[in-house]
Write a structure and sequence with these properties.
By secondary structure, the chain is an alpha+beta fold. The chain has a domain at about 310-370: Magnesium transport protein CorA, transmembrane region (Methane Monooxygenase Hydroxylase, Chain G, domain 1). The chain has twelve helices and seven strands. A seven-stranded mixed beta sheet has the order 2-1-3-7-6-5-4, sandwiched between helices. The longest helix is centred in the last third of the chain and has 67 residues, at about 270-335. It is rod-shaped, with a radius of gyration of 35 Å.
């Protein structure tokens, strides 16, 4: 769809009736996933476009440029534009309207970025990695445990642009939560940035708690009676998924500390204090992931040790039975050499005596091995 088509869709959203229609849809489906082809009420990559003044929604007439001009004239509001996986053509007009830096635009379109915080003049560009726990009946060597996505945020004095990638992480609940606290939203676009950061980090903690259940299950299986038979692929798969979670959570620590401690023009000082709480939660999630990683290493080492012990026990049993079988083999081998002059060849009780000696020797060996734990 062309940029002109997108802006016409935004114009329809800007009417009062359009806003009421989208608001009603959001109330009916609070956790709607907007990642499918019909992801947007506007029929394009634009998910929502709303103007706020003094923390309250205001009716917007005209195109997106008209909404931006209105809030800039009033000097006391901002526009929040939300998009999902826009193409280069769809985003080009928006980038020109808000004077977004080409490097940030390129990162937004291509995605697959690390969590980061960058400043381009008066615009702040932030990248968040979203995570989602993938439900599964049983953890196997191929189970997907963690799914990741991305949220890019452009922040200026009078606008907030959010671009989402992935099949989860809908910002509808964030928007509803912010609109229920107009005093917080009145502090400007930085309230949107804090709401998104808080939402993303809270999801980190939820996913970490869910992963811990898988960790407990694997640990219980490994240290069970037949733990040596546990498929090590399950442990490796959980470790791989934990690594993906770590790549999403850990790099976000530095950007959050910058938002909490360093003065930034587009971030309200009162909002800045709230980022400290978000940074604390992110640090907690990072520490739990590091602890999980160490625990998985210990579980894997314990499993390998169990396998080694089980193999040693099997070898001892095989060796013990081989020693027992060697006795009749030796006796029978001696008497099978067909020499003419051999002891007890003509004795009537020679055969029963040979069987008795073999049985007694085997019984003594069996009891000795059993007493020493070899059998």
């Amino acid at each position: 769809m062309s940029m002109a088509g997108n802006l016409r869709k935004v114009r329809r959203l800007g009417t009062v009736g359009g806003l009421r229609k989208v608001a009603g849809l959001t109330r009916r489906r609070r956790r709607v996933d907007l990642s499918h082809p019909a992801r947007s009420p506007l029929g394009s990559s634009v998910v929502n476009c709303v103007a706020y003044e003094d923390g309250m929604r205001v009716p917007v007439e005209g195109e997106l440029a008209d909404a931006v001009e209105r809030v800039r004239k009033s000097g006391d509001g901002f526009v929040w534009l939300g998009l999902h996986e826009p193409t280069n053509d769809e985003f080009a007009g928006i980038a020109e309207l808000f004077d977004l830096h080409p490097l940030a635009v390129e990162d937004t379109i291509e995605a697959h970025q690390r969590p980061k915080l960058e400043r381009y003049g008066e615009t702040l560009f932030a990248v968040f990695k979203t995570v989602c726990y993938v439900e599964h009946e049983e953890l196997t060597a191929t189970s997907e445990v963690v799914d990741t996505g991305e949220i890019m945020v452009f922040l200026g004095h009078d606008f907030a642009i959010t671009v989402r990638h992935g099949r989860h992480g809908s910002l509808g609940p964030v928007r509803e939560e912010l609109e229920s606290h107009p005093l917080q939203l009145a502090k400007g676009p930085s309230a949107v940035l804090h709401g998104i950061a808080d939402y993303v980090v809270d999801e980190y903690l939820s996913v970490v708690d869910a992963v811990q259940a898988d960790m407990d299950l694997v640990e219980t299986d490994v240290f069970a009676e037949h733990g040596a038979r546990v498929d090590p692929g399950r442990i490796y798969q959980l470790k791989r998924e934990l690594l993906e979670l770590k790549r999403a959570v850990v790099p976000l620590g530095r950007p959050l500390l910058e938002l909490a401690d360093r003065p930034i023009r587009v971030v309200d000082p009162e909002i800045q204090a709230y980022f400290r709480d978000v940074a604390d939660h992110q640090l907690r999630a990072a520490e739990q992931i590091a602890a999980f990683d160490e625990l998985l290493n210990s579980i894997l080492q314990a499993h390998l040790a169990q396998v080694t012990v089980a193999q040693n026990e099997d070898m001892r049993k095989i060796t013990a039975w081989a020693a027992i079988v060697a006795v009749p083999t030796m006796v029978c081998g001696v008497y099978g050499m067909n020499f003419e002059h051999m002891p007890e060849l003509s004795w009537r009780y020679g055969y029963p005596l040979a069987l008795g000696v073999i049985s007694a020797a085997c019984l003594v060996l069996y009891r000795g091995f059993r007493r020493n734990g070899w059998l």
